[in-house]
Amino acid sequence: MIESERVLPLFPLEQVVLFPGMSLPLRIFEERYKLMIGACQVTDQVFGVLLIRKGSEVGAPAVPERVGCTARMLRVDRLPDGRMTILTIGEQRFRLDGVARVMPEGYLVGDAQLLADDASAAVPPELLDSVSSEFARYEQATLAGLRRPQPVQPPELPRDPLRLSYRVAASLHIHPRECQRLLELDEVTSRLQKELELLKRENRPAPKTIGPFS
Fold it and tell me: What is the pLDDT of residues 121-146, one digit of tens each?
């Protein structure tokens, strides 16, 4: 569902998919992005983060995916060597309307449609319970560095379906393309159902090794 439209400066990344509510620290060293951050500082502190579909983060402008997430700058630190470190937080999904274009300064901008998640359908309570349970197992195993339950304090999870879907998506250590598919889902129930599938897959015990030393 399209909520509004605006022009966004764009920051394409190779391995990161940003979700609403997710913190994202960035180190800025290319001149084009220093100029972009400077421009954002005098406007509304917001730019768009997208996964790269073709190309790389440095050098020639990359071709990004069409769906991304806006990032709001919370802190900007300028280092003595000219680099910058910034702390951002994801705010809202968006979809590019058309092809991103290159500014004279070298960074990308695009016409973005800000997206509102479809939460009109009631999410079954059993789906929320299943996602929360599987995610708690996943978090425990991740914090312990093992893929089995450990005596780690269970995480406090939101009961709001939308917030839960983003919390899970931002915490999954899976391929960026799988994260991208989660970001592109407009319907909250569909996102939670897909996350439940992924959590069950990630929580599945690794197969035993068969060999002379097993």
Answer: 789 999 999 999 999 999 888 877 65
> What is the CATH topology of the domain spanning 125-203?
Methane Monooxygenase Hydroxylase; Chain G, domain 1 (1.20.58)
Whether the Cβ atoms of residue 112 and residue 6 lie closer than 8 Å to each other: yes
User: Does residue 69 contact residue 183 with C-beta atoms inside 8 Å?
Assistant: yes
Question: CA-to-CA distance for 49 and 61, rounded, in angstroms?
Answer: 14
Summarised one tens digit per residue, pLDDT across range 43-66 is: 899 999 999 999 888 877 889 999
CATH number among 2.60.120.280, 3.90.870.10, 2.30.130.40, 3.40.50.720, domain 2-115: 2.30.130.40
Is the pTM for the entire model greater than 0.85? Answer: yes
The two most distant CA atoms of the chain are separated, in Å, by 65
